[in-house]
Amino acid sequence: MEKFEVHILGCGAALPTPHHFCSSQIVNIREKLFMIDCAEGVQMQLRRSHIKFSHINNIFLSHLHGDHCFGLLGLISTFALLGRHSTLHIWGPQPLKQLYQPQIDFFCQGIEYDIVLHEIDTKSREVIYEDHSVTVETIPLKHKIRCCGFLFREKQLPRHIRRDVIDAYNIPVCYINNIKAGQDYVMPDGEIIPNNILTTPADPVRSYAYCSDTMFKPDNAEQLQGVDLLYHEATFKKEHELLSKKTFHSTTHQAAEMAKLSNAKKLIVGHLSARYENEEEILNECKEVFPDTILANENMCIKV
Amino acid sequence: MEKFEVHILGCGAALPTPHHFCSSQIVNIREKLFMIDCAEGVQMQLRRSHIKFSHINNIFLSHLHGDHCFGLLGLISTFALLGRHSTLHIWGPQPLKQLYQPQIDFFCQGIEYDIVLHEIDTKSREVIYEDHSVTVETIPLKHKIRCCGFLFREKQLPRHIRRDVIDAYNIPVCYINNIKAGQDYVMPDGEIIPNNILTTPADPVRSYAYCSDTMFKPDNAEQLQGVDLLYHEATFKKEHELLSKKTFHSTTHQAAEMAKLSNAKKLIVGHLSARYENEEEILNECKEVFPDTILANENMCIKV
């Protein structure tokens, strides 16, 4: 299987504590690194997770609350000090440009790489990024300010060649790519060798969804159908449902309900509040609704 | 002696590394906490040093390079989340207001305390802060952008009462403050008891100077004469003097020379560069010129 994994750099809510950094993650898809959110301390956490700074070319900010973006300017500066030359793309809701362009102009004078700020519409589902291996789609969320999640969907991989059969039919190497793509092979005598004899199926396409911060938004389940890994915020325990509504956050049960409605294969809950000393209780509440839940933690790496 | 100590929260140059956070300090004078510089990660460092967030009312920024101020917005937000109500004063060079007011307006909407931004003139020596126990004076520095250091000077403390003598003369308690301030006491029969019988001298007045970032600026020695503790940057070893000049920084020898010229009692060198693996060499170079030197380190606390 090609690499597709999520590194949790921080999963705490509101402010850094002795237990948690604030929200930042790295999604590694075939050694391309995508950053989601960029909280204070993110550089230190990248080092602890042994992640290569130079492989990060895209940063997706869910929203412009400090606990999701106060590490951005420091990271931009550090990229420059480390000799970066490749363009950095930063995606986030309005007023990303108005807020960050003056800061970048002031603090990052003379840096030797380009920074492109992309403002995204948080109300619609849109593919905002695409390359040969992945698409990134916005997930509309409901928070106090403009906010969206991100759905990373692998593109279809080629089928696996059956080396022994290829050899047996003496098929020249120049046909291999077409066969991987699903074509049959026509022998010199006209005999057709069907593709399913020459190959085994491609690995299934995987997906990862990041939903933080948001109140319960069940209509997102359609977009998230069958997602392999869902990261969802669970800022409050179920007893604090009123408070969660008031602050536009989700409870444990709501996070788990989203996983259930979405037929997610696995749920990871984060945006953990310092309000709760025993985080196992958060996990257990989620498991009541969706058993295949894990609790996010710093420097954890989850294979999708 | 009343408390006067310096907590090093970070003393690295340019970017946070596994060894050092960037520049931030707390000066504790009689339980009033003054912050100097405010780099990324400063909140985590405050917690590690067990420093009370609520006792910090004044933050002095030497200059607006990211490695000296990227922790500011996070700290402001955390103050709010911790329920702060008292006014926070932030001092720094232009364009402090232009740069930070829009950020504060956006990220700190609805916070329940006031923030006052004070722009300081980095070219002159000025008392920018004064209360009953301390004055803070700017020290003009020479760096790539507007930059100044800060000289914390304790105010004269009262003389110490000699309890036994006071009792022997049966002096009423209402005269004690005047006697502490140096007055003689007149007995009911007109006899004058001179102050030096009633008291012992006050503790000597102490001072602390923070000089970072700057190139060698020997004319500052006059202002710093007799300082008890001098924190001076030593970003480069002596072999890199040309580079230090080019980047408007100081070498080890220059930092030590400043301590010597200033007749400082003790030197602490910081703004340590990741360029040098063995920091003992930095220390040793300083000691060649000024023996009473120590090397800054995170979570170190030095009594002035």
Major pleated sheet of chain A:
7 strands, mixed
Q: How many domains is the backbone of chain A divided into?
A: 2
Order of adjacent strands in the largest pleated sheet of chain A: 6-5-4-3-2-1-18
Biggest interface reads: A-B, 27 and 27 residues
Distance between the termini of chain A: 10 Å
Please state roughly what percent of the residues of chain A sit in beta strands, choosing from under 5%, 5-15%, 15-25%, 25-35%, 35-45% or over 45%.
25-35%
CATH topology of the largest domain in chain A: Metallo-beta-lactamase, Chain A
Give the overall silhouette of chain A. globular
How would you describe the overall organization of this protein?
- 2 copies of one chain form a homodimer.
- With 304 residues, chain A is an alpha/beta fold.
- Chain A folds into 2 domains: 255 residues, Ribonuclease Z/Hydroxyacylglutathione hydrolase-like (Metallo-beta-lactamase, Chain A, 4-Layer Sandwich); 41 residues, no CATH class.
- Chain A has 11 helices and 18 strands.
- In chain A, the strands form 4 sheets. In chain A, strands 6-5-4-3-2-1-18 form a 7-stranded mixed sheet. The first copy, chain A, has a 7-stranded mixed sheet with strand order 7-8-9-14-15-16-17, with helices on one face.
- In chain A, strand 3, helix 1 and strand 4 form a beta-alpha-beta unit.
- In chain A, helix 10 runs parallel beside helix 11.
- The longest helix of chain A is centred in the middle third of the chain and has 12 residues.
- Chain A starts with a strand and ends with a strand.
- At the A-B interface, helix 1, helix 3 and helix 4 of A face helix 1, helix 3 and helix 4 of B.
